[in-house]
Amino acid sequence: MTRIDVQGLTKRYGPDTVVDDLSFTVEPGQVTGFLGPNGAGKSTTMKMIMGLAAPTRGSVTIGGRGYRDLPVPLTEVGALLDAGAVHGSRKAYDHLLSLAVSNGLSRGQVGEVLARTGLEGVAGKRVGGFSLGMRQRLGIAATLLGDPQVLIFDEPVNGLDPEGIRWIRDFMRSLAREGRAVLVSSHLMSEMAQTADHLVVIGRGRVIADTGMSEFLQTNGVSSVLVRTLEPGAFARRLTAAGATVRDGRESSLVVSGMTSEDIGRLAVYHGVALSELAPQRASLEDVFMELTKDSLEYEGATAA
Ligand SMILES: Nc1ncnc2c1ncn2[C@@H]1O[C@H](COP(=O)(O)OP(=O)(O)OP(=O)(O)O)[C@@H](O)[C@H]1O
User: The organism sits in which domain of life (predicted)?
Assistant: First the structure.
């Protein structure tokens, strides 16, 4: 089982510290979402994992070794950092074949990855005529040529239509189910919520959160419960007495926090109060993400201004 281990990773460009003492691991058998606003340092981190940028300090290992020490890197780690980086005049099959040959991999792998990414029918077509979604599939096919245990994708769904997004999401999940370690970056929380098992959130090059996805949703997702009853005043007093915080919602509903919907339901039964509505209110994930990263966004805004 191969994992990525990032330890105290730091990258400076001149006076700017773009990645700042970053430590996290990417475990096998799951999709790790790497989330942060634009400019947070995601791409720079991924480049350092792939040996394309040198850390100022700290280290990255893949299965215990640095990228440059891997004997045949493509068989250990596949990365899609920029799907546009293919000659438009090349045919899909030829592009993959040249990658396979130059890395000492078998030709048979080309057919296999074309089939796996649903590109068999266009293998003989020039990449220049490919849609963005097909280019992404081709980029993913290339990452799989060496059948690596570790996969890295930088913003793979950017610009794709809903069908393309869904395909990529399902594909990432199937790679993780096979026991591979999958690291995928995004600046969209909603996207990660449907794809990732684990979440590493960064802002201004630093880790803001490093947590299981379900844990993250539990802590940050549900902020209150909407309750509707014919006796709001009386039930509000019961709720307050039981330790909840209650405020008036729209159309004489109650907005309750500090108590789960199950406990509110039980309290209503205990006191014989009829409820016509009992609905957990999920703060939008995008709101949670904005809240988490607002310091780095303010910084970004100030820079842009
Ligand atoms: N080669 C470089 N020289 C100088 N600054 C750089 C270089 N590469 C990146 N940066 C700066 O580092 C910061 C982080 O960039 P990076 O691309 O890693 O962020 P990101 O989180 O991937 O964001 P995005 O999604 O916008 O690409 C940005 O402010 C960027 O301008």
Answer: Bacteria
Q: Predicted ipTM? A: 0.94
Pocket test for ligand 1, best of 12, 17, 35, 43 (most atoms within 8 A of CB): 43
Q: How far apart are CA 277 and CA 50, in angstroms?
A: 52
Structure pTM?
Answer: 0.80
Q: Which CATH number fits domain 4-212: 3.90.930.1, 3.40.50.300, 3.40.50.2300, 1.20.1440.60?
A: 3.40.50.300
Distance 173 CA to ligand 1 centre (A): 27
* Fold classified for 222-282: Alpha-Beta Plaits (3.30.70)
CB 13 near ligand 1, within 6 Å: yes
Give tens-digit pLDDT for 253-279. Answer: 999 988 989 999 999 999 999 999 999
Helix (H) or strand (E) holding 292, with range, is: helix 285-304
> How many Å lie between the centroid of ligand 1 and the Cα of residue 18?
7
Distance CA 209, CA 33 (A): 11
Give me the residue spans of the domains in the chain.
4-212, 222-282
Q: Using CA positions, which residue lies closest to atom 3 of ligand 1?
A: 13
- Whose CA is closest to 43, among 126, 153, 134? 153
Decide: 224 in ligand 1 pocket, CB within 6 A. no
